[in-house]
Input
Amino acid sequence: MTDEQIFKNYIGGQWQESAGHETFDNINPADTTDRIGAFQKSNAEDVAAAIAAARAAFPAWKRTPPPKRAEILFRAGQLLAERKDDLARDMTREMGKPIEETHGDVQEAIDMTFYMAGEGRRLFGQTTTSELPSKFCMSVRNPIGVCGLITPWNFPMAIPAWKIMPAVICGNTVVIKPAEDTPLSALNLVKTLEEAGLPPGVVNYVSGFGPEAGAPLAKHPDVPVVSFTGSPEVGRQVAQAGADLFKHVCLEMGGKNAIIVMGDANLDLALDGAIWGGFGTTGQRCTATSRIILHKDVYTEFSQRFVERAGKLKVGNGADPGVQVGPLISRAQLSKVERYVEIGVREDARILCGGSRLTGEEYDRGWFYAPTIFADCEPGMRICREEIFGPVVVLIPCNNLDHAIEIANGVAYGLSSSIYTRNINNAFKAMREMETGIFYVNAPTIGAETHLPFGGAKQTGNGHREAATAALDFYTEWKSVYIDYSDKLQRAQIDT
Ligand code: NAD
Output
């Protein structure tokens, strides 16, 4: 890729410049002198054109038999698998996470593509009985129309795939507006769908910023379905934008995910999980482990060993072999982490390691922050309640399982949680009591698979789920069908 590269929007099967003729730069967060290319700074006019294209494509696509839609998705999945190395390299360059993790991100997109392609021969409804004779009842799924998809930067291909694949297999058409920090990975996904033979207008892509491109998409009257993943602040605006027209709005937002480590846990395993859950993706996963609630019997030993392990993590450019922790995505995200660490210090939490930006030749051109651990934290502290979205983990002591569960549930979010224990009763009790959409036993808070529902309780979401067949419920309307072959009027609930 050269410095001159200009990437375009994809609207109605055409690669086009923005009507405003403005672009923005996509920059490598590990080396800000590395400019990946210029992307279209789209505006409301571009978004309207993309919506019009999606609307025009909808009637033919919704009548295309789902197994035929699926054939295109299967081809796209194969192309993604063939190109996995290149796609991962592009993603590490624009997003920063280590190359092994970006391979995982692409794999998640492949998994979702194949999974939803399989749905082309299912999309099951129900057939059921009737309370009246000679009457047949069934329910079928119907596509809804144009779906507006707004995605964040931390899973730049997986999250677009979570939304695009179920939407199109169900017969909808889409307009996607990816995060401004990672427009390339979503574009690579859309390009692959084009090459796999997706008809023009079924998937449309507009790059750009939230207020100029995301907001008009969320608001537009011809977009009855909006799926958003990102921050709670923007999620609220997206929900409000859809409220007047009673749009279907799926919101996936923040987390403050906890691991509970009980006194009977396998500590080696818990440490492996805490390191991966806390510092994988530089803590920039919605499911990242940002709190570790430690039984008092293991608090001291776990804390010491956790700090030793965190201190050995290799931080650097994710493209370099051996790097385990990449940069933060942007200057803004780095500042946010710095602010929260100051807050933690003011709240009298004790820094065990990290606590500052990394400097030196390897780091000065990027947004690197040292893996940071706070000890002796109280559940009410802001660093224990608010999402930091960086390599910062807080350690909170607890007395017993009930106490641990009370602490874990004492936040506004409800995305993911986990317990390390060898006691089956503890594990099942925690499974029942944790107020999260995802729960793990003897594994960290990250690691979702595409065939299970993904999403959060409480203020993480608004009750919908992505992935699995749960996603089909969001992207279709149920139609209940009654066929009366008795040749006479039969009145439900009245004629017996
Ligand atoms: P963000 O809310 O800043 O941006 C998300 C998307 O919304 C971007 O595409 C952005 O351009 C767009 N946007 C911004 N303002 C908008 C507006 N007014 N109207 C419409 N769209 C607008 O979030 P982010 O910083 O990209 O992502 C980090 C957040 O995402 C974290 O809170 C994280 O927990 C969350 N996240 C959640 C999940 C999940 O599934 N629960 C997954 C990944 C990330």
